[in-house]
Amino acid sequence: MKIELRFFASVREQLGVGQESADVPATVTTVGELRQWLRQRGGAWEQALAEGRALRMAVDHAVARADTAVAEGCEVAFFPPVTGG
């Protein structure tokens, strides 16, 4: 399944990439599984997307949880929590 990935702020800086198209295995069906699959790339990917790291995710511009489904052609974004003031 092909999906579009977007990375913002410190996540983008750590990975050195802002976006990419990825061919994801059929076994990846949720945002949490996608995050885990991307971490298997190792190095900066493992650190930037580490389990337990404060990280927000969105699917097609809607805030997502780890159990949110991903589908062919969707856009998944990863970004740090944002605070205002």
UniProtKB/TrEMBL annotation:
Domain of life: Bacteria
Pfam families associated with the record: ThiS (PF02597)
InterPro entries named among the record's database cross-references: Beta-grasp_dom_sf, Mopterin_synth/thiamin_S_b, ThiS/MoaD-like
CDD domains linked to this entry: Ubl_MoaD (cd00754)
UniProt name for this protein: Molybdopterin synthase sulfur carrier subunit
